[in-house]
Design goal:
Layout lengths: L2 E4 L7 H8 L10 H9 L3 E7 L5 E9 L5 E8 L8 H11 L9 E5 L3 H6 L2 E7 L9 E6 L4
Helix pairs in contact: 1-2
């Protein structure tokens, strides 16, 4: 499978993002208006597309001050493409995204996804209670940049 990186996702990607979100139960309630509003407040949005079809396969949002903090949100890979390396490619795109070159991205991950993020260069920093009150503890991870 051949892919391309899309570093210019914007409001026009809302229908594609909704389609990706609908493949995950915990994001099934996302609607176009709220996703559009979230994108308006997102500093960086990157994606991975199928090179042949142009279909959006994966995306991630980043909120950042470009100096100290870059929090990654909504890391999502099309359910049918998981296990094909698309997620790794997405995270490599995030951590090498030129506007983020001076900051190490961080994220919150469900316990079961920690090994995946660690394989992409993130290091666990500790746990926190889930903000929605779910019993599952989230893990805080930071990308390890080689100095």
């Amino acid at each position: 499978m051949s892919t391309t990186i899309d570093r210019s996702l914007g409001p026009e990607a809302v229908p594609e993002l909704i389609a990706l979100y609908e493949t995950y139960e915990w994001w099934a309630d996302r609607e176009a208006d709220t996703v559009r509003r979230a994108l308006a407040a997102t500093d960086e949005l990157v994606g991975v597309r199928d090179a042949e079809t142009g279909e959006l396969l994966a995306a991630a949002r980043v909120l950042t001050d470009y100096t100290y903090y870059a929090m990654v949100f909504d890391v999502i890979v099309d359910a049918d493409r998981r296990g094909e390396g698309v997620g790794e490619e997405l995270l490599a795109t995030v951590v090498t995204h030129p506007p983020l070159s001076d900051v190490a991205p961080t994220l919150l991950a469900r316990e079961g996804l920690v090994p995946f993020y660690e394989s992409c260069g993130f290091v666990e920093q500790g746990g926190i209670d889930h903000p929605d009150g779910d019993p599952e503890e989230l893990r805080f991870l930071a990308y390890r940049r080689d100095e």
